[in-house]
Amino acid sequence: MLDFCYVTVGAGAQLVAAWLSRRGYAASQCGLANVNHLNDLYALFVDETPDQRHGYRGLVRDPETSQDVQLSAVPKGEMPVAYLSFNRNGYSTYCRVYRDYQEWEQKRNPERYQNTVQHGKNYDAKNMLHVFRLLRMAEEIATTGQLHVRRPDRAFLLQIRRGEFAYDELVAEAEALVDRVEAAFATSALPDAPNQAAAEHLLRQVRRTWYAQASR
To answer: Residue 210, by phi and psi: left (phi above 0), alpha (psi -120 to 50) or beta?
Structure first.
């Protein structure tokens, strides 16, 4: 959490750990007090008495687990040496992203992850394969009106899965494919909407055939 706490220095700010190190202070010497009307901004006091008789509580209860700063009772008349700002929104976003990453680590497919490590190109090759499969199928549908499930470009797709291409090269090609797909659909002879009656007729045919075979 302290990585999201900054101390005012002149007209700028400095990470609190760097500020403490530069000044030669320990976090345990510090006390924080609210600044009225200013959210997440705190007056920072330092107890430089020999026995630290002010009893300041430090900046946080536990640097590893705390979710908020810790306030101290400050003797009347003490002057703050600086002001500390806690970037609460930034810290919350970081925690959410980190939790999502940990969840992904726990649920990821070990075989796919190992494949990504082995080919060394730093991208999910199976996911990239499907990007190209779907884009090329979309282009074929727009230009020919046909859907080819058994891919004539199978060898190329397997090359992607083996990580034989650089990431930037594949991204550039995918972006060009997106442009071609959009252009193809803009001039395609395909109808704007499917023929619902024909689709329902085909569905009934398939079901009748299936039920007839299943009842034998």
So the answer is: alpha
